[in-house]
């Protein structure tokens, strides 16, 4: 193992152990010798990794002792010096939903064409579960409702058999979940959403791609309008 590769591996090792809580904030880092023995290397790459992490502010040097773990700096994405303000969050949500609208509408069209009978059954099961969960909205159990609704959307995406759309959904799970969650939280009526889900399911069962596209497009347009009004 080269010193460069060893330094990178040790740097990642220290960061991972800080993030998962094994190395506590304001405690001492294990000794250079101990880390070197663990990786079966000399102390040179360990020292290089520590120097790098000290420069980043993750560790703090202490004379004649192991460095102190300071952790990762908490960033304020909306500092006065940044071009984005808190008000921009609303626009970020709307832009994310517009992207989803284009992708999911096309994915729903493909699902209507490509989904197998078994996949349609899985989508319908998710659809029925999402309807069953709606009564929980009034009880304030928003996570359960948004989870069920998200599952319905995910099954449609998978049934499109398009690796690009499937990968997209895997890359931004937090964004998609927050869309679903706040879509329920600020919704004033569930009637339109239920009708849209019914139209999507009906189009999929008919294997009507164009109808499926319009149904999903209109469904997400309703959510976008909700976010624009918040």
Automatic annotation (TrEMBL):
SMART domains, sorted: FCD, HTH_GNTR
Keyword DNA-binding recorded: yes
Pfam family, one: FCD
UniProt entry keywords in alphabetical sequence: DNA-binding, Transcription, Transcription regulation
Protein name: GntR family transcriptional regulator
Organism: Clostridium simiarum
Domain HTH gntR-type positions: 4-72
Keyword DNA-binding: yes
């Amino acid at each position: 193992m080269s010193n460069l590769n060893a330094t990178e591996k040790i740097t990642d090792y220290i960061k991972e152990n800080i993030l998962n809580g094994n190395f506590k904030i304001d405690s001492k880092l294990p000794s250079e010798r101990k880390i070197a023995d663990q990786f079966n290397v000399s102390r040179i790459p360990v020292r290089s990794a520590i120097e790098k992490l000290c420069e980043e502010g993750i560790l703090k040097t202490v004379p004649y002792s192991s460095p102190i773990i300071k952790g990762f700096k908490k960033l304020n994405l909306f500092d006065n010096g940044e071009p984005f303000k808190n008000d921009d969050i609303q626009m970020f949500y709307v832009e994310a939903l517009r992207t989803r609208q284009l992708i999911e509408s096309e994915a729903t069209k493909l699902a209507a064409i490509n989904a197998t009978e078994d996949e349609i059954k899985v989508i319908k099961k998710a659809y029925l579960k999402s309807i069953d969960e709606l009564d929980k909205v009034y009880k304030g159990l928003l996570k359960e409702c948004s989870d069920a609704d998200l599952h319905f959307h995910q099954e449609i995406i998978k049934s499109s058999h398009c690796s690009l759309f499937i990968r997209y959904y895997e890359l931004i799970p937090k964004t998609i979940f927050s869309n679903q969650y706040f879509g329920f939280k600020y919704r004033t009526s569930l009637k339109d959403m239920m009708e849209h889900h019914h139209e999507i399911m009906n189009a999929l069962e008919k294997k009507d791609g164009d109808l499926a596209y319009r149904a999903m497009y209109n469904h997400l347009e309703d959510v976008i309008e909700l976010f624009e009004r918040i």
